[in-house]
Amino acid sequence: MTIHKASKDPVLIKKIALKIWSLRTEIEEVIRFRLKEAENREISSPPFKDLIDEYQGNVSPQEIETIFKNVKSDEEDDDSENEDLEEGDEASEESDDNVVIQRTPQIPEEKITKGKTLLSEINMEHIYLFAEDTFIEGKNVVIEFLIPKMFSLNAQVIHCRKHSMSSRVISGQKLPHRACFKFTFLKPGEKSLLRQFLLSIEPEKVIAPQTDEQDGDGEDDDDFGELDDLDM
Predict the structure, then answer these.
(1) Quick one: angle between helices 61-77 and 23-37, nearest 10?
(2) Which runs of E-coded beta strand occur in the chain?
(3) Contact (CB, 8 A) for 11 and 4
């Protein structure tokens, strides 16, 4: 969605900070938290039928079983680590026609990739972004949008490449990778969450009025201000 794509009016470029982690990492942390909760009782296999139902669009029951065994083994090897691990609330977000669980697992900082995108680079199918780390094509990831009403969506990596370090678009932010993700809408209601977010971005809220003083003044030296050299 490019806001007023054909308009000659200047558009206020709104940056959105992102946190990105792999879907596998999220499942690991959810399972690790549940093991902590249930450490005084026996956990049977296969684990957590609700997780299998929740993630089966991208992760097979066999994969979740493997993740469970690996995490359980790690916990048994060193049950003194990560004592303060918290999953956080499973907030149920009301959407147009569904209720989607928005998980807030405590992902280790070293497994989080920071990113940034623009309002004009998000639509109902794809998101284009800049990221501090590279991503493997086809990898399933979770994107957390750091806005006042924070939410997360599942996606798959379409492509990711090193961006020209000579471009001032990224020079100040140290986000040297340019990526495109496709939304997978893994969980019911995610599509409605994205639609509501995009509809909440009214064009009149982002259009900046043109004035003679603004013509060529060059004051707004935003690090995302030049997009002509981006291969989108």
Answers:
(1) 50
(2) 15-22, 91-94, 99-102, 113-118, 126-131, 140-145, 151-162, 177-183
(3) yes
Tell me how far apart the alpha carbons of residues 55 and 33 are, in angstroms, rounded to a whole number.
17
Per-residue pLDDT of 9-44, as tens digits, reads 554 557 899 999 999 999 999 988 888 877 655 655
**In the predicted model, is pLDDT for residue 193 greater than 80?**
yes
What's the Cα-to-Cα distance from 195 to each of 23, 63, 123, 167, 170, rounded to whole Å?
A: 22, 31, 9, 32, 28
pTM for this prediction: 0.71
Amino acid, single-letter form, for residue 21: W
Q: What is the DSSP string of 132-160?
A: SS---TT-EEEEEE-SSS-EEEEEEEEEE
Q: What is the CA radius of gyration of the chain?
A: 20
